[in-house]
Structure formats: structure tokens, C-alpha cells
Amino acid sequence: MTVVTRSPGVVTAHISGQLVALNDKMEYVALDPMGEAIFELIKQPCSVDQLVESVTARFDIDEPTCRADVSEFLAQLQSSRLVSLSSAD
Length: 89
Known about the structure:
The protein is α+β, with helices and mostly antiparallel strands. Helix content is 42%, strand content 29%.
């Protein structure tokens, strides 16, 4: 199971109605509504499975598509140093 955790020092702000997340180097990522929902869900560490379940319940998206989209989005957040992904038993 993969667990997602926000990186220390990440700051969020709403700018012009859109959530923006800034890393420790002041690089930012603007989040769409689904990205914002995911970022809110990971205020506390949670599993990718929990994220997929929550997102499919909130948005009109099937589970396989959601899983692929969430995985891609988390990889982008990880490369932007906004989250860390770890394995948990």
C-alpha cells in the first residue's frame, strides 16, 4: 500500500479562486478542483486507495480512470516536492 504525505513546509493559498501549493523553494502548482480535493484529503497521511475511493465518490469518474489520474497527479506533486510517497504494510 502506498501512503501519501504532504511535504513539510508546503504552503497553500487561494489566488483568484484557485488553490495554489508552494514548496520550500517557492515553486508553485495551481490545482484544479479535483487536485484541490486531493490536496485537502492529504492534510493527513492517507493511502492512494483512500484517495481513489474519495475522488470517485465526489466526482463523476470511474475507478480505473481515477486511479490512473490520481497516480499521475501524485507523481507530479512528488516531482514538485509537495508530497512524499512511501510504502506501508
